[in-house]
Write a structure and sequence with these properties.
The chain is α+β, with helices and mostly antiparallel strands and 288 residues long. The chain has nine helices and nine strands. It has helices spanning 46-71, 80-83, 90-94, 120-127, 140-145, 168-182, 187-193, 202-222, 254-263; strands at 2-8, 12-19, 24-27, 100-103, 136-138, 163-165, 231-234, 240-243, 248-251. The strands form four sheets. The protein has a three-stranded antiparallel β-sheet with strand order 1-2-3, with no helix packed on it. A two-stranded antiparallel ribbon has the order 4-9. Strands 5-6 form a two-stranded antiparallel ribbon. α6 (168-182) crosses α8. The radius of gyration is 36 Å and the shape is flat. The N and C termini lie far apart (102 Å). The chain binds 2-acetamido-2-deoxy-beta-D-glucopyranose. 2-acetamido-2-deoxy-beta-D-glucopyranose binds at residues 105, 107, 110, 112, 246. InterPro entries: UstYa-like. It is a single-pass membrane protein. Belongs to the ustYa family. It holds the Pfam family UstYa. Keywords: Glycoprotein, Membrane, Transmembrane, Transmembrane helix, Virulence.
Length: 288
């Protein structure tokens, strides 16, 4: 069999094959335009046309969807996981907080900087977590959804109003740091320094420490971690089981939150008129 091509109506190159048996050139695949062989038509067939249009429309639709998501909250709203398990906070609106997997360093024997004996280095490490930041100001509009209420401390109108508040997570770390300082093997050092919580008399210090302890108890119970600690074997001679504290966790971005709190602190020095004077009925008889 031999193949040859011919021009068909000046547009389509058609293939004909000569059949040895008939010795005649017989159109084999080149038919008249009315024929069923659609692939060889000069214009795309109906289905091809539909397909191309569909693809173009789909791409446009995806593009429009992308633009819409860009302009709406959808593309950034990775915070939904955290929103479900958190009191509302401007931090959830300001930051793209999403959960990330973090490998804990659960070393039993090897102490990192946060576990060092009392001294300037370990203090600096804890300080760098933002545990002693000044409060932040929360705009009035955001305060109400964040469970702050009008009876609480606010800035005066002259300073733009808004609530004075601390980020809970940093307070928790402040508390943990106080427990560290109060540990029997650290407390003498910090008593001698007489700074922070140690400026107060024994009764207040004691009260402060137990307040911190109980706050952390409630927080840990609130977010009770249902992850598991497996066990490892150690000691080649006489293998013994020991908990494996090097576990994976779903964590919030602490560093982003710390940075937010750092940037939103009230000024270091504020005027006497900085706070709006309280209404009489908003002032309590004693510290709750
Ligand atoms: C955990 O931290 C300690 C102290 O910094 C270090 O010696 C150890 O190698 C770390 N362990 C892992 C598994 O990263």
């Amino acid at each position: 069999m031999a193949d040859s091509t011919i021009e068909h109506k000046g547009k389509v190159r058609c293939v004909t094959r000569s059949r040895a048996s008939s010795q005649e050139n017989e159109p084999f695949v080149c038919h008249s335009l009315d024929d069923a062989d659609r692939d060889l038509r000069p214009y795309p067939s109906f289905t091809t046309f539909t397909l191309i249009i569909s693809v173009i429309l789909s791409i446009s639709a995806l593009f429009m969807l992308g633009l819409w998501m860009e302009s709406s909250d959808l593309h950034v709203d990775q915070t939904w996981e955290i929103r479900r398990v958190s009191t509302d906070s401007p931090i959830l609106h300001d930051l793209d907080l999403e959960l990330r997997t973090v490998q804990f360093n659960g070393s039993f024997l090897h102490a990192n900087i946060f576990r060092q004996p009392a001294g300037p280095d370990v203090d600096a490490a804890w300080e760098s977590l933002g545990i002693n930041y000044r409060p932040v100001v929360i705009p009035e509009s955001q305060g109400r959804t964040a469970e702050l209420n009008e009876g609480q401390v606010r800035l005066s109108e002259a300073y733009g109003g808004g609530y004075v508040a601390n980020v809970e997570g940093l307070h928790h770390l402040h508390c943990l740091n106080l427990l560290r300082q109060a540990l029997y093997f650290n407390v003498d050092y910090y008593r001698k320094q007489g700074q922070g919580a140690f400026v107060n008399d024994e009764f207040i210090l004691h009260t402060h420490i137990t307040h911190c302890l109980d706050t952390l108890r409630q927080q840990l119970m609130c977010v009770v971690d249902v992850g598991l600690l497996g066990q490892i074997w150690w000691d080649k001679e006489k293998p013994k089981a020991f908990p494996d504290f090097n576990t994976k966790h779903k964590c919030r971005d602490f560093e982003a939150v710390r940075k937010w709190a750092e940037e939103h602190q009230v000024p270091e020095k504020t005027a006497r008129t900085y706070l709006r004077p309280p209404r009489r009925e908003d002032v309590l008889d004693s510290i709750p």
